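lol so apparently i was supposed to do this last week
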Amino acid sequence: MSSVTVRVPAKVNVQLSVGPLREDGYHDLVNVFHAVSIFDEVVAKESESITVSVTGKWSDQVPVDDSNLAIRAALALAKHAGRTYGADLIIHKDIPVAGGMAGGSADAAGALVACNELWGLGLPFDDLMEIAGDLGSDVPFSLLGGTAVGTGRGEQLSELPTGGTFHWVFALANGGLSTASVYAECDRLREAEAADVPWPQPNDSLLEALGTGDAYALGSHLSNDLQVAALNLRPELAPTLDAGRQHGALGAIVSGSGPTCAFLAIDALHARDLALSLTTTGAAHTAVPAYGPVHGATLV
Ligand code: ATP
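anyway here it is w/ adenosine-5'-triphosphate bound
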């Protein structure tokens, strides 16, 4: 096989509950991931060494050295297989960079699946999940897709059944937010308020809404503990969220660490109208309708 293509989705967190700061600098999380139909494509081609190039609208914001998560994933896979392998990785980027939609993790997951195939390793899914967990908290979910609850740092995953398709609109912001700086701001605010931070718990009403496919109930239970911190760093996101609610979104939250804003719509038609309203009123410069859940990293 000389070339392999993998499609891998973005995610939104429908619940992100952040526990107290741990001694190791991480937080215990309850992170309900939901994979949505905004995709990066990772192509792996036979080569002597491991390289990466990036195409698409966000390409200028993505590093092409060894810090690229797709390269790190390919190197980790080769190490696991105990041999030196090469691959030219070509990433076609549609997932916003540093947007709170796990774009880098998606590319890492895509590279794992693509190189496993290109190199004929035939490693089982569980092995790829293990390597993914070492690469980053969001990488296992990018492999798995669907809807799942993550605990620990977010990497211990249990799949969740969903009762239907949910329709979303994502308002993309100009420029990204660093995940680390949003967590730091969250810690700073909590310290300043001397807040008693509860242990994170899954919201049973939200899980039930996902299970029954009830978009109205899901919309009313969306939550993100990082939202206050993200809004502190990017105050201009608050009017975008308000505009979505005014245009009938069932729920409006910052996606993960932001700055992408996620709006839950009633159905596909409403998502299209909502996206149009957000852009024509200037509340968002780009608004993308999408649906979920979708599969994780998939060979095409
Ligand atoms: P998360 O939602 O997991 O917190 P994010 O979506 O906010 O992540 P990413 O798009 O994953 O953020 O990018 C975070 C940083 O990682 C970028 O600023 C970029 O420098 C770096 N990076 C490394 N590899 C990639 C990649 N393949 N795609 C995008 N960013 C990458």
